[in-house]
Write a structure and sequence with these properties.
With 105 residues, this protein is mostly helical. Helices cover 91% and strands 0% of the residues.
Length: 105
Amino acid sequence: MWPILVAVIAISAAVLILIGIIAAVVAIFKAVKANSPEGKLEAAKNAAEVAAEGVERTTEAFNSLNDALNSLDDKYENLENLTKGSKEWRDAVREINTEVMDLID
């Protein structure tokens, strides 16, 4: 019984050592690939794609905000032409306030 147990433990230890060696080789291969010119080029390409997407989203958000602010400016100009306290004036103020609250959200 003991010789079988010792053999099983020895085989298990050998398998674990082999797994460790394989993991080390894989880690070294990944490190070499990441530091190779091709790996660096791929990383730079991915970073450039992420940056381009960020620029696109920022541009869209800026354009949307700019359009909303232009719309508000037009509504403020219209408000100045209304009689203060009139129903039309109150409706215009409510509309402006709603638009401002939407921008805040």
